[in-house]
Fold this protein.
Amino acid sequence: MTLLTTGCATVPYVGQGPHPQIERGQPFFPVDAIGNILSLPSKLLLLNWRVDNHAISEETERVLVEYLKYRPEDLCDVKIRMNQWAPFGEFKHLWANKKVAWPYRLLIGFPVTLVFDVLLPGRLLGGDHYNPYTDTIHLYSDLPPVSVHEAGHAFDFSNQRYPGTYAVLRFVPLVDLYQEYKATDEAIAYFIHVGDRPNEMGSYKILHPAFGTYVGRYFTRPYGLIFVAIGHLHGRKLASDQQEVYRRLDAMKEAGLKDTQVTDTGSAERSARPPGPTP
């Protein structure tokens, strides 16, 4: 399978194989095991043991690559690091990312990258995120909806006239909620578009409570946790309702198919009869 994009390199891709935009950190059991333990609060909060598990499967990577093919012109240059700590690579991308004006990259992008991608490495601490200053997606969770959500951030930023300003606006209260909503909406819409029902259901169940964590940050504990709980309930309700819709659609299609088969069979029988009066 290949990634065909305008202006992008075309490299054979076979799952966890060479890809022009994806790099993987080499497995290192002590660090990954510690990171998996340190992520227990996030796992419990989102009720999913694959959150920040530092072991991204071929399936999650495959789903992400399919999304890159779906948005080739917008995501051609984005870098994806799967469970990788690459400080020199990040500063290289910070310098090369011409999408964001240099004052933003120097005054804000440099300290943000230094702190969150170098001094506090996600390879150990986890935390899937998109860095608009380096145009890099950092993934540590083995969850396709999360990977597409982060890529959704990259898509959102790529469509902004002033991505640097858009990045700085995230420091303004409530703007982060808007940006998170946009990325979640993009992920769910994509899975609906391609007919990936399992990951659509998974998106409701993981991305909605994750959104609740962002809302909860505006409130003191334990009140903030209420929004995470609401996210879980709302996400599961949406998944249940959507499954019921699909069940009814499948039943209607099956009934329509049977009617068609009966009609076709009758037509075939009539055409096979010899000429003469109908009995």
